[in-house]
Amino acid sequence: MSGPSTYQPQNAVLQWFEKRLPIGGLIHSSFVAYPTPRNLNYWWTFGGILSFMLGVQIITGVILTMHYTPQVDLAFKSVEGIMRDVNYGWLLRYLHSNGASMFFVAVYIHMFRGIYYGSYKEPREVLWILGVIIYLLMMATGFLGYTLPWGQMSFWGATVITNLFSAIPGVGEPIVNWLWGGYAVGNPTLNRFFSLHYLLPFVIAGVVVLHVWALHVAGQNNPTGVEPKTPGDTVPFTPYATIKDGFFMVCFCILFAWFVFYVPNFLGHADNYITANPAVTPTHIVPEWYYLPFYAILRAIPDKLLGVLALGGSIVILAFLPWLDTSPVRSARYRPLFRQFFWLWVIVSVGLGWLGAKPPEGIYVILARVLTVYYFGFFIVILPLLGIFEKTKPLPNSISESVLGAKA
Amino acid sequence: MTKTLIALSFAAFVAATVPAAAQEHDTPQPPRLKWTFSGPFGKFDEAQLQRGFKIYREVCANCHSMEMVAFRNLADAGGPGYTPAQAAAVAGEYKIKDIDDLGQPIERAGRPADHFPAPFANEAAAKAQYGVAPPDMSTLAKARTYERGFPWFVFDIVTQYQEQGPDYIAAILKGYEEPPKDVHLPEGGNYNKYFPGHNIAMPPPLQAGQVTFDDGSPTTIDQYAKDVSSFLVWAAEPHLVARKRLGFQVMLFLIVLAGLLYFTKKKVWSAVH
After folding, report:
1. pLDDT tens digit sequence for B194-205
2. How far is CA A80 from CA A274, A355, B124, in A?
3. Do B139 and A274 touch (CB under 8 A)?
4. Average pLDDT value over all residues in chain B
5. What is the DSSP letter of A45?
6. Both ends of chain A: CA-CA distance in Å?
7. Cβ separation of A261 and B246 shorter than 8 Å?
8. Percent of chain B with pLDDT over 90
9. How near does any CA of chain A get to the CA of B6, in Å?
10. CATH no., domain B26-68+126-252
């Protein structure tokens, strides 16, 4: 995707085809000849892992759809039918439900890596914002998917989350009824959630294409945050990045398989093995683990509208990161203060996740408020000020120098 | 410096949350039992599942449905180990409501493809006796759990402890006691040590000696609780054995592949390092 391709097929048929549609050249320049910084570490393999997980989710999802019935009286039974009677149905469903979690594990690591190494900074702002859009779409898709088995947590999670829109003054109530297709979460809600859950992954795939395109225009960032200057600073994508990505993807699959085969229900909620019952409210309504930090922020704020705004703000603020971070130095390697505030922010985010699973009472609420203040403070106060006051360490002259030392 | 900071904030976090977590446990945690199906090589004990099925049939099934399970499942691989003929014979002992060729409602003998019939005609009828409908037992062992608390729930990923369901069910079956003096239960309530809130609608379902076993296993409540809980795990996760077996093969494959890719990667990169 970067400039005219040097790809020259040997085969006559391929030459004929290439003259008419140069798709071989596109693949060659994007995934073979594409120069990648030679100093990328394993945190850079998660982009590939994420593409792989999107593929896993779409393939397992399409097959699950062949056996699933989006109707309130049949949805739970059809999922149990998949688990019991469809050949390897249990495998497909556990791959899909745990795959969603693994997708989020990978995306969180990918985002933390981007923040740590300043990958959102000029000229990669659009690349970063496209990533935030993919993340938002993933959250929507995950939420919609979690309602489909129509268990207790599906139903009540959908009720709580859609009800957030009722906080909007004036039009809140009509919006919620419009989302539900009725006056409560019911069959129309399940139908439209199913439809959208099938649609959004393909929208994600589309934005992923834009994300990769933007990446190949700006080029990858790297652990030093110094742009490649000479051909010696880069290596071709194939074989170097492909083999490294491939190796770590298989390592990631070991983790994935551990969950699928050995603790497949660990990341789910026991209540979701009870059929949805609008007459019985579960004691604690808890969303999926990947939303818990934001759920904690929502409940930390006593006012419903402000809580919803904080919840939205905590995600949307990521899109403004390229301008909130005023430091000209990208990588945390050369930013001693930023590094500490960053790790504290990671701990705070994980802590908020833990608090999101706790009942909103007593010490949990107080802790959630303290952590929420730091979460936002990191973006709004610390990052802008750090750029002005932080004394950064000297940057290496080039990637080669940082890898090979002074001899380069 | 960064590491100290991480350690300090982690310590502060744990210190702040431990008292809060301790308050939650006015209900004791169910004791952890030994299950044949736990761990990476876990398998069901056929004799235990057959005993558990007998308890289900003679006791639980009077109130609890199990509508996702079919009679044919009794003969499935990795289950209680009945032959297809035995499963068909069990089915034949049940009466199934159906409609004959002339459209008249009839009751016929069960067939292997039939599912276990529900004891009550509808939810209202199920509610009538104890005020709440007895839960369906098809997924019960996965639908019940107890809070493990931090940090134990993290360790559970590595130790593969996922038998919270059967531990909880077995504890409930054994947890009936005289209520403490300061506890007043509402009419029809039963005191159970392990039930959240202690007031359970279900009266003590099992008495020692109530169900007889052909294999000479003790007819105690402890034995019943364990056998029927194992049976419920099978009912909720009938492909558990196949899952763990395939899991081991997949793990071996992935680890070998990762090793090969690691050395390939080293060889490829040796030129540039």
Report:
1. 999 999 999 999
2. 11, 31, 24
3. yes
4. 91
5. G
6. 30
7. yes
8. 84
9. 7
10. 1.10.760.10
